[in-house]
User: Which sequence fits this backbone?
């Protein structure tokens, strides 16, 4: 059976931050959607929770799944912030491909 972290050699795991792992997983999603220019934080959180062998399904002290707020918090530590808009009285947060790329290029 293949390791769940095949994308990253096991000997590197102790040296990779949770933020870097998140950005790597987000880029798997971004690369799978080549036509998209905007990525909804809620959709990213749902997709991340579904990844097997990653920490996103059970995080923190209570073991709760990552949320859009959690994604924003971790990406924010890398200087990647969402665009926030109001649409019909609803708050919508999304990330542009360019902003995600700038964060990836800095790492």
Assistant:
């Amino acid at each position: 059976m293949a390791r769940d972290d095949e994308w990253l050699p096991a000997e590197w795991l102790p040296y990779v931050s949770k933020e870097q792992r998140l950005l790597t997983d987000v880029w798997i999603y971004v690369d799978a959607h080549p036509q998209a220019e905007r990525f909804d934080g809620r959709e990213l959180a749902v997709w991340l929770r579904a990844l097997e062998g990653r920490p996103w399904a059970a995080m923190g002290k209570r073991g709760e799944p990552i949320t859009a707020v959690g994604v924003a918090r971790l990406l924010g530590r890398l200087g990647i912030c969402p665009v926030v808009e109001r649409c019909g009285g609803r708050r919508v947060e999304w990330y542009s491909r360019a902003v995600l790329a700038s964060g990836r290029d800095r790492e």
In short: Helices lie at 18-32, 41-50, 68-76, 97-106. Residues 1-5 have pLDDT under 50 and may be disordered. The chain has one domain: 14-106.
